[in-house]
Amino acid sequence: MATENQYLNPRQWVEAHADYLYGYTLSRLNDEEQAKDLVQETFLAALEKVDKFEGKSSERTWLTAILKNKIIDVYRKKSSGLRQADVKVAEEDQQDFFEEDNGHWTKAYAPQPFGIEDHDPLVGKEFNSILQKCMQKLPALWMAVFTMKHMDDATTDIICSELKVTQANFWVIIHRAKLNLRACLQKNWI
Amino acid sequence: MSPLKHIIYNCKQATLLIEKRQFKKLSFREFVELRIHLAGCSVCTLYNKQSQVIHKMVQQLFHDSMQATGVHLDTGFKQELQIRIEEELNK
């Protein structure tokens, strides 16, 4: 099996993949220090399992898979605990979005047009930075579910089992996260 | 209220279906309920539009952040990393 290992070249990892893995992590966690730590941990973990590399995927794909699991670990830690305070607060805030008895939008929170309705790619950077800030404000568990679903197209089953969320609760979280995000964008983008 | 009436007049439920639909095919029943709701609710129609744009923007954001431009680790950190790896390899 020795021939398979020639695909891995650990001495070139930093040069070839460090920036990529760093960017990958930053887009998912947006914490520079933590991203650096994870890149380092990924390389060290990879070194330990070099002999398990089967050469079925590229070196980068293999390293990314290791990193991805580490990111999910971070999500899991951040969002563990049965009832996190941040989720509770966000849920309470959302109670005002809809009328309690009939589920209609309340006057105060009903969506208003705010200039994104006609998808304009020129909106660009400024909008993205607000979008990112709004995502950061989501409770950790919502952020984790939302990110995993949008970014990696992870299947719902995987997300549910990784983050210990039921299927029904999964859609509730996707829904709630988006409601919050939209409200935050409307508030900050005008 | 019948279950059908319940959804037709319920924006909370309708917006949940709007989100679900972006990832998953709705059941026939859900599909019909949502269509009826949207036909009569301008606020949710707006929400629907905005929600889809945000969906695209989020995916674009994640996609862009993967492009090589922009993020780079600083050289000092990379050197340390290189040394760590060499150390491990020479153990």
From TrEMBL, chain A:
The keyword DNA-binding belongs to this UniProt entry's keyword annotation: yes
InterPro entries, alphabetized: RNA_pol_sigma-70-like, RNA_pol_sigma-70_dom, RNA_pol_sigma70_r2, RNA_pol_sigma_r2, RNA_pol_sigma_r3/r4-like
Keyword entries, A-Z: DNA-binding, Sigma factor, Transcription, Transcription regulation
RNA polymerase sigma-70 region domain mapped to chain residues: 14-79
SUPFAM superfamilies in UniProt: Sigma2 domain of RNA polymerase sigma factors, Sigma3 and sigma4 domains of RNA polymerase sigma factors
Keyword Transcription: yes
Pfam families xref list: Sigma70_r2
Family stated for the protein in its record: Belongs to the sigma-70 factor family. ECF subfamily.
The name this protein goes by in its record: RNA polymerase factor sigma-70
From TrEMBL, chain B:
Source organism, top-level taxon: Bacteria
UniProt protein name: Zinc-finger domain-containing protein
Source organism phylogeny: Bacteria, Pseudomonadati, Bacteroidota, Sphingobacteriia, Sphingobacteriales
